[in-house]
Specification:
By secondary structure, the protein is of the alpha+beta class. The chain has three helices and nine strands, in the order βαβββββββααβ. The strands form three sheets. A five-stranded antiparallel beta sheet has the order 2-3-4-7-8. Strands 1-9 form a two-stranded parallel sheet. Bound molecules: zinc ion (ZN).
Length: about 180
């Protein structure tokens, strides 16, 4: 089932999401729906707050971006209660967009190399080291769990220019091809 994606301006995107345990009701169904919603919207990552659930759950499927590097081919993940540590202070700046902020793409600075402790869909505890594009995607999604959006990380003049677009999203003057909720 495709779920509506909550747009910039909705308060749920600003809440710190809560951890869940394996008794969370209908978790498998939610994960399946999130993958479907993300894929239909041509997204590569989706955090639960973006579909109106303030819980620490992320789905990622970057396999459609395999042109950018074959290591993305099998980058399909479910991250539950992820904890992020940066392995280095080194950063990279790359352009990002977000299904909750349609029509806005801006450069954002992220760590190049991160460690992630998390639970997978079967609530098995895992650790993963991620670099480059994978690390960027995961940092963007974890921001969502902390009530933060990529547009909060752009600075000065760029932010000023983006504000116009952000205000029109807030006013509902936006019409992406996927189902949304204001
Ligand atoms: Zn996003």
């Amino acid at each position: 089932m495709t779920l509506p994606i909550y747009l910039y301006g909705h308060p749920i995107l600003r809440k710190k999401a809560t951890e869940i345990d394996k008794d969370y009701p209908e978790l498998d169904k939610l994960i399946k729906d999130m993958f479907e919603t993300m894929q239909k919207a041509d997204g590569i990552g989706l955090a639960a707050p973006q579909v109106g659930k303030s819980i620490r759950l992320i789905v990622i499927d970057a396999s459609s971006l395999k042109d950018e590097g074959s290591e993305l081919q099998d980058f399909k993940r479910v991250y539950i209660n992820p904890k992020l540590t940066n392995n280095t202070d080194e950063t990279i700046t790359a352009e990002e967009g977000c299904l909750s902020v349609p029509g806005v793409r801006e450069n954002v600075q992220r760590y190049t190399d991160i460690k992630l402790d998390y639970f997978d869909q079967n609530f098995e505890e895992k650790t993963e080291n991620l670099k480059g594009f994978k690390a960027i995607i995961v940092q963007h999604e974890i921001d969502h769990l902390n009530g933060k959006l990529f547009v909060d990380r752009i600075s000065g003049l760029k932010k000023h220019l983006a504000n116009k677009k952000l205000n029109s999203i807030k006013k509902g003057k936006v019409n992406p091809f996927y189902k949304v909720k204001l």
